[in-house]
Amino acid sequence: MTTQRVTFKTLLEILFVSTRLGLTSFGGPVAHLGYFHEEYVRRRKWMDEKAYADLVALCQFLPGPASSQVGIGIGIVRGGILGGITSFIGFTTPSVVALILFALLLSGLDVSDAGWLYGLKVVAVAIVAHAILGMASKLTPDTKTRTIAFFALAGVLLWQTTFSQVLFILLAALAGFLLFKPDHLDAKSSAFPISKRLGAVLLSIFGALLVILPILRETFENQTIALFDSFYRAGALVFGGGHVVLPLLERELVPAGFLSEEAFLAGYGAAQAVPGPLFTFASYLGTVINGVPGGILATVAIFLPAFLLILGALPFWDALRHNPKVAGALIGVNAAVVGILIAAFYSPIFTSTVNDAVDFVFAAFLFVMIAYWKLPPWALVIAGVLGGTLINLM
Questions:
Q1: d(C-alpha 123, C-alpha 135), whole Å
Q2: Transmembrane stretches, by residue range (predicted)?
Q3: Domain that holds residue 352
Q4: Considering its fold, how many domains does the chain have in total?
Q5: pLDDT in tens, 179-221
Q6: What 8-state DSSP symbol labels residue 10?
Q7: Sign of torsion over alpha carbons 333, 60, 186, 318
């Protein structure tokens, strides 16, 4: 793939197309990839099938919002780093604006006893349970990976500190490095217009922030640093997209007193109803905590790892995925992430929402809707709001 001269017209075209997708792409990361394929590969032919499949494989391989990273990668291919930034802005801005406005609207209301809010909390239980089960079936297929997941689950539940998640991720990488030697690795190759030197610098920044931010948080009692650390870590450690970032963010923010459980889950329900990446849920959370500046800070923090990883990994992708030891380490990391998410799902998501048989049956019904009837998340939001309101009136 050759590097091309980037013009203002090219960037404007990227912005127009990505914004249109940001306004119309409902359905979560898998649906987004389908929209991208139709628009960028079939209609506009900005990439061929092989290059697109290669890019999707890389973004599934990395933590963070996969569909957003694919969009950034397509922008890079089309218009260099500026093209990647432009593509991200276009795809992400509509949902960021919608969720910041929702947060500002909600801030003036007392919703602590609202039936619709109870319904949204139960919706979150069903959606996150479904997402974690889907991840577990793919990322913990055997005894070794399930064992790694269990020890990560036990570790983060029994030893809840700022550093525990990062520590168990690193231990899982070491276990994967020692235990797994994949035999069948993708033999396809491609090239992207980013130098290896720049890639190495960006990957170093990604790793340094993951280690330094928790240290700064413990050293200085500063809300801005604490929020940036929480959102950055969530964006850096989540595999599988926006649904599974919920328990990590809830564990980071609600027990620390940044916002209430009710306000947290109200925003998550709203995030199901807007197009674009679900990671923009962070925009809502930041706004509730510290107004519009907080919303912008949270948005930057949660998406920054995605930028650093996709830009940093592109020039090394072929070497990484063809190295059995690196691939083995990532198998261990993926398994640990499943365990961490199950732990966070148990407490506080499940324990704070499902308190009796009615709650459990309601959650089970919503789970059937998404898992077996294959209904979209927005349908669950409607059912949750209506069901929660009716139950609250009984």
A1: 18
A2: 88-109, 115-136, 148-180, 200-219, 231-249, 295-317, 329-349, 361-391
A3: 113-393
A4: 1
A5: 987 765 555 555 567 888 999 999 999 999 999 999 999 999 8
A6: H
A7: negative
